[in-house]
Amino acid sequence: MPGNILAPGAVLVLWTLAMLIWAAVTRFQAFGKAGIDLKAAPPGGRGVDLEGVLPPLTNWKSHNYTHLLEQPTLFYAVIIFLHLSGGDVGYTRGLAWAYVVLRIIHSLWQSTVNRIPVRFIIFALSTLCLLALTLLAVIATLGN
């Protein structure tokens, strides 16, 4: 696998920002359709306040953006540990890319179809990749 283990992390950051843009665009479009005037919004409003106000299909993108700021933070730390400890090898890069691809698939599924059984399977597979990477990072860091 070419490159280094940091490349999948950079791609996932880019994907997270793409999801932020998608969530923002769909929300602003939905504001107009729902007759929401942001200038009249009370101070301190949060995204969760829009649940039940905006259509679920709109909110799903925001939900996924939030998810990309949760578990993937562990992924970023693990790939840095692997990079710094000599654990940046072909199979760890493969697992890192698998994690990123599965997270992108998860994003697309959650943002468009959002059927829970399939979403859970995609999430579970990505979590297994992260678990394997974490165990390999522990081995790599304890071995040096």
Description:
The protein is mainly α and 144 residues long. The chain is built from five helices and no strands. 74% of the residues lie in helices and 0% in strands. The radius of gyration is 18 Å and the shape is elongated.
Determine the N-to-C terminus distance.
23 Å
- The sequence of SSEs as H and E is HHHHH
**How many distinct helices?**
5
Helix content: over 70%
Work out the strand percent: under 5%
Radius of gyration: 18 Å
Low-confidence stretches: none
Shape: elongated
Biggest sheet record: none
Number of strands: 0
Summed over residues and divided by their number, the pLDDT gives a mean of: 92
SS-derived structural category: mainly alpha
Keywords summarizing the entry:
mainly alpha
How would you summarize the topology of this molecule?
Blueprint lengths: L5 H29 L21 H13 L3 H14 L4 H23 L3 H28 L1
Question: What's the short story on this structure?
Answer:
With 144 residues, the protein is an all-alpha fold.
